[in-house]
Amino acid sequence: MFVTLADLAGSSNFALQRTIPLALPACTQSKPVSYQHYVTGAPMASLPSQLEGKTLVPLLAGAPATGSAAAFTIYPRWREYDDHTHCFKSYSQIEAIGLSVRTATFRLTDWTAWNASFNKPGTLRSSPIILCSNAA
Amino acid sequence: MQTVLATELYDHREDEGMGSQAFDSFELANLAEVAEFKVVVVELRGLLVGAFGSWPAREGSGPDRSAGGQVEQGG
Fold first, then answer.
1. ipTM of the shown complex
2. pLDDT averaged per 10 residues, chain A (length 136)
């Protein structure tokens, strides 16, 4: 069974990314591609150039799992924008970028500063702070 | 590693990836500053360094609006 974008309405951005990690390329890259599109189209044609990663079709077909046990995602946050209009804003307006790793047991996200001069995360280190907690 | 502005850590050990609870029940409490999970933060941050530590500089100022269509869904 495939999960469609419509099924995920109301879910958080990271829930979306976790569920379709290879379907939504970095927001800065290009138009999102649905999970269903990816898994059905990938074996039949070369991947779109903006997509990175590996096809999961063999895994879905029952092949043994190999390679990394972690999935990595990137999520930029633009100043003043928190919807997908920000996908078309300049990189220089990026406020922070979330670097996330999901293993079988945990998800860690480091929100990092953005170096607009070089279009990459900053290189200095500082002590992380608590972002928020939604616990009751 | 990059300048870290904030950190989130969520426990998915009970997450079987099935049902609606897989989306809404495992990212309610940020454990990044909880003492017993410090080792997890260190371990996973090491994975981030390995994956993103050599991020290359890229040319350009943003997406080419003339090249792509519209996004499919808001977030």
1. 0.76
2. 46 51 39 40 55 72 80 80 62 84 94 80 49 47
Whether B63 is in a domain gets the answer no
- Is B70 domain-assigned? no
Mean pLDDT for all residues in chain B: 77
Residues of chain A positioned with their CB less than 8 A from the CB of B35? none
User: Is position B59 within any domain?
Assistant: no
* Token pair in block for residue B45: 């941050």
B3 and A99 in contact (C-beta within 8 Å)? no
Cα–Cα distance measured from residue B3 to residue B17, given in angstroms and rounded to the nearest whole number:
32
Which of B48, B59, B65 to mutate against chain A (most A CBs within 10 Å)? Answer: B48
Domains in chain A: boundaries: 6-121
**Entry pTM:** 0.60
